[in-house]
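Email to the structure team, subject: GntR family transcriptional regulator model.

Hi all, the expression group asked for a predicted structure before they design truncation constructs. Nothing fancy, just the tokens so they can compare against earlier work. One-line instruction: predict GntR family transcriptional regulator, return tokens.
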Amino acid sequence: MNAPSRPRPRPRRAVRREQLSDEVAARLRADIMTGVLRPGTFIRLDETAAALGVSITPVREALRTLRGEGMVALEPHRGHLVLPLTRDDIDDIFWLQATIAQELAASAAERITEAEIDELERLNEELAAAVERHDPEEIAVAEFAFHRAFNRSTGRIKLAFFLLHVARYLPGQIYAANPEWGVAAVAAHRETIAALRRGDVDTVVRLTGGEFTDGAQRLIALLNETKLWG
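Reply from the structure team: attached below.
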């Protein structure tokens, strides 16, 4: 009897193409969420590929992803149309993120170790340093690292994955580029860390929910400024 053959590794080019597709989708998603790409706008494959410096293929795959998310619709012979983004959409997205994040926060407050809290403190100081340097890209990376460590401390990896999936809709760069937001984020993290050391579950949950309330308010204010809703 022949031994089962091992699955062949996927070609590097295919992996890179998937990464490009994800990057293009993230860029287009952020542009839609922040009103840069307005409802009723057609996204052209060739123009988008040229603007982003990629081939048409990852743009086509990214648009397929966004169609599945209800952010664009394919109009035959015309291209991909940006669909309306409503206040209810924003409220729903942030409600879902906050609901999952607060559940994770409660678990973290009950299960986190002193070593994990020390790691959160270190990561928050890295965020504070990035905020002082006014480096939006570094701020975004440091903020992600802090929340990844926080969510891992819960032991609820599947739920943390769901939060990561929903968080794709949060346009992180608009926050990272705002000095006021960076200072507030560092301060909120310090309060959270202090509450974790005390084992104060209610405060950890409240502070976590507050971050998403603040995020929603900032995004809605930006979209109001762009007159997305008339």
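Strands lie at 42-43, 72-75, 79-82. Confidence is low (pLDDT under 50) at residues 1-7. Ping us if the truncation boundaries need rechecking.
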